[in-house]
Structure formats: structure tokens, C-alpha cells
Design a protein that fits this description.
This protein is an alpha+beta fold. The protein has helices spanning 37-44, 50-67, 108-112, 120-124, 153-165, 207-216, 221-224, 231-239, 261-268, 273-279, 301-305, and strands at 17-23, 28-35, 76-82, 88-96, 99-106, 128-135, 140-147, 169-175, 182-189, 246-252, 254-255, 285-289, 296-300.
């Protein structure tokens, strides 16, 4: 990754931002994310039980950490966790240009049988994690798929980078007690002299990476979710002994569901008239649900025929 917008560490908002940084002397890069109102807005569209809301919060933080690394402003990152035998049937979150959205499909009856906060294996069984990078400018797509292993989505993401990308990485994600604030950190090693490649391959035993990883592991969950702690202050706590900590960019994060009535109409209009007739109810209306925002768009089939 190149180091654009090089500037001294400066104040950044504590909520709904992704802050990129680099440790040039250690050949490492990273991202810090903390979600507040954006997370609240996404969760408020669904009446998720606390365990499901928590895992979606973790997924949205992870999606923001990864998506904010995209150089292409029109690019999209999609995170999908899926299983055939878990409580959660499907979890989807995506990022595009600072916009976040996500939803979870799950079995309420099976969830009710689990006490407290179910483990990752209880929620997803033998599921998998798929992370897809779509580059708008080059029209290229890259996807990595790994088993959902570990105690958390953060551990699963580390497995993804280790297996699919071969990039030594540290991922830590925390959700506050209220479930309405979540934060995370992503640290990755860059081999010496490599600043511009999208995906980097390096030795796993680099001593400089071990140093950065040990410092990153000292971050506490309360620090990641404390809205009174500016993200640049957290960077200082973690890496104040380093020769240089360079702020790369700050990306504001917003809730961004891309569904609207016009888009729904355009999609339905592509279906053959007989197919739309099967979709319509007795009144001639076609209802389209958006899983992301829980809105229902109703379109008159006769209007599409016209």
C-alpha cells in the first residue's frame, strides 16, 4: 500500500471513522475503526436479539477495517459468513466509499436454546468466511474463502490473511456493553521496500513484525470502544515509542443502503411480463423486501407493463 496524504498525527473524530496509519520504521500499516451512530442506525432497522446484534457489530467493524484499505473510491468489499448447520444461516456486510450496510439471517428458536453469548462455532457451525474485493476502475474481482475458525470473527479474519493473502496480520474487535458502540484495529506487515502492491507476500518470522504485533496485542477492548478516547490518542498509547507514526487518511463512515424505489422498478422491469405476473399479488402489486434496511417497496405491475 502506498502512503498517500502523509501528514503528522492530527485530531480525528472518535466515532464513525476509519483512520489509516503506518509505522514506516517497522514496515507496517494499520487501520483503526470505531462505530457509534452508524452502528445504531443499522441495528435499529432490525429487532435483533443481543447475540445477533453483537456479531453483526463485529462484522461491520471488520468490513470497515478491510474496506477502508481500498484505493479505488468506487470499489466494494463484501464480507459473507455462511453455514448450513449453524444458528446463523447467513451474515452479509459490505463497504463502498465509506458506506456500510449489513444484515443477519438466523434461526430464532435455536438461538433461544443457547445461554448468554453463543460462541462462534455455535453461531456458524462449520461455516466459511468469504471476503470479496471488487475494483470499480479495473473491473477486477478477487475473493478469498476460509473456514470460520477461532473464537471470533477477528480470528477468522486473521486466518483469512494468513491463508489467502499470506500477510502477517493482527485483528482485534470489541463491542461495548451497550452493543451500540464497536471498534477494532487491523495491523499488517509490509516487507521492506514494498509500499505500492495491493497484496504482499513476506516471511512470517520477521522480527520487526513480532515487535508491532506485541504492541498491538496490548490494546484493550475498552480502549477500542471508548468514545471519549480519540483514535489518534489510542495510536499514541500503542506506538508512542516508535520513531514515526504516520497518519495516512481518515474516512468518514455512514450507513448506506443502496436500495430505492427507482432501482427496484428498474430491476423488476427486466423480468418478462409472465414472470412479473407470478410475483404480483391479487391486487397486482409486487412487494420487494430489502434485507439490509428492512424496507418493503411496493410496485404496481401494470405500471411496469406500461
Amino acid at each position: 500500500m502506498a502512503f498517500p496524504n502523509q501528514q503528522p498525527i492530527a485530531a480525528a473524530a472518535s466515532l464513525d471513522n476509519a483512520v489509516g496509519f503506518a509505522l514506516p520504521g517497522r514496515h507496517a500499516r494499520g487501520r483503526l475503526v470505531r462505530l457509534g451512530p452508524v452502528l445504531e442506525e443499522i441495528l435499529s432497522a432490525h429487532a435483533y436479539p443481543a447475540p445477533i446484534a453483537r456479531v453483526l457489530g463485529e462484522a461491520l467493524v471488520l468490513t470497515a477495517l478491510l474496506g477502508a484499505t481500498l484505493k479505488d473510491a468506487g470499489g466494494q468489499l463484501t464480507l459473507q459468513a455462511q453455514t448450513e448447520n449453524g444458528i446463523v444461516d447467513l451474515l452479509v456486510a459490505d463497504y463502498r466509499g465509506g458506506e456500510l450496510r449489513g444484515y443477519v439471517r438466523f434461526d430464532p428458536e435455536r438461538l433461544a436454546e443457547e445461554p448468554g453469548q453463543p460462541s462462534l462455532s455455535a453461531l456458524f457451525g462449520k461455516g466459511y468466511l468469504a471476503i470479496t474485493f471488487d475494483q470499480a476502475v479495473s473491473n477486477e474481482r478477487y475473493q478469498g474463502i476460509v473456514p470460520l475458525e477461532g473464537e471470533s470473527l477477528a480470528e477468522a479474519a486473521e486466518h483469512f490473511f494468513g491463508q489467502s493473502e499470506q500477510i502477517p496480520s493482527l485483528v482485534r474487535i470489541a463491542v461495548g456493553d451497550s452493543g451500540r458502540i464497536a471498534g477494532g484495529i487491523l495491523l499488517q506487515h509490509l516487507p521492506e521496500g514494498e509500499e505500492g502492491r495491493e497484496r504482499l507476500h513476506t516471511r512470517l518470522d520477521h522480527p520487526e513484525w513480532d515487535h508491532v504485533r506485541i504492541l498491538g496485542e496490548t490494546v484493550r477492548a475498552g480502549e477500542l470502544t471508548d468514545p471519549a478516547l480519540p483514535l489518534e490518542d489510542l495510536l499514541w498509547r500503542l506506538f508512542h515509542d516508535e520513531e514515526e507514526v504516520r497518519l495516512l487518511s481518515t474516512t468518514p463512515l455512514v450507513r448506506g443502503c443502496r436500495c430505492n424505489a427507482e432501482h427496484v422498478r428498474s430491476v423488476l422491469a427486466r423480468f418478462a411480463p409472465e414472470e412479473r405476473a407470478e410475483m404480483a399479488d391479487e391486487s397486482g402489486n409486487i412487494g420487494v423486501d430489502c434485507e439490509f434496511c428492512s424496507k418493503v417497496f411496493v410496485v404496481r405491475n401494470s405500471e411496469l407493463d406500461a
